[in-house]
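When time allows, look over one protein, given below as sequence and C-alpha cells. The question is which stretches look regular and which look disordered:
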Amino acid sequence: MRPSHSRAMVRAAIRRGLQAAKDNLRPGLALWLVAVTVVTLYYASPRARTALDALAAFKQRWGYGFAVISTACWGGLVPPLLLRISIRSPERRPVLGGSTVAFLTLFWGYKGAEVNLLYEALAETVGTGTDITTVLTKVAIDQLLYGPLWAVPSLAVAFLWKEQGYALGRTLAALDRRFFETVALPMLLANWGVWIPTVAAIYALPLGLQLPMQNLALCLWSLMLAAMTSRTKTT
C-alpha cells in the first residue's frame, strides 16, 4: 500500500470517528453533565451521598450479578430508545434490529463482568483512594493499556463478527489493514473522546459506584458504536 494511500485512509478514519462523536454530541454532553453532577453531589451533599452509598452497597452485595444485568441494560436496551430521540431523521439514524439489540445486550452483559473485574483489580493493585495521583494512575492504565490493547480491539472484532453474520471464517478474512484503519482506529479515537473524561469521574468515586457510573457513559459509547458500525438495514 502506498504511503499516500495509507495516510488518506487514516484521515478518513479520523473523520469517521469525529463524525460519530458529532452525531451523538447532545446525548454525550448530557451524560457527561450527569457524571460531573453525580461526583459533585457525592462530595457536596450529605443527603445525596447517603443515597449513593446505598446504591454502592447494593452493587457490592450483588457483585457480578449487578454488573452483568445493569451493563446489559445500559449498553443494549437503553441506546435504541435514545437513538430514536436524539437522531430524528430516519436516513441518518442507525437501524438497530432485534438481532442487533440481542447481540448488544449479551455482549455488554459479558463486558459488565469484565469491567467489574478491571475495577476490582485496580482497587487491589493501585488502591481505593480518590486522590489525584491514584485517579490519574488508574486513568492511565485504563486508557493507555486496557483500552487500546484489549477493550477496543475486542469491541472492533466482536462488531465485525456480527456484521459478518457471526461467521468465524469471514470474520478472520476481514481482519486486514483496511479494517484496522477504517474501523478499529475510529473506535479508538471515539473511545478516548468518551472515556478519558469519564473514567476520571469514575475513579473519583468509591469502588461500589464506579460500575454504575460507567454504565451512564456506556449509553453514549454504545450509540457511537452504532453510528460507526451499524448497517443501514435491519439485521
In short: Residues 17 and 189 are 6 Å apart (CA to CA).
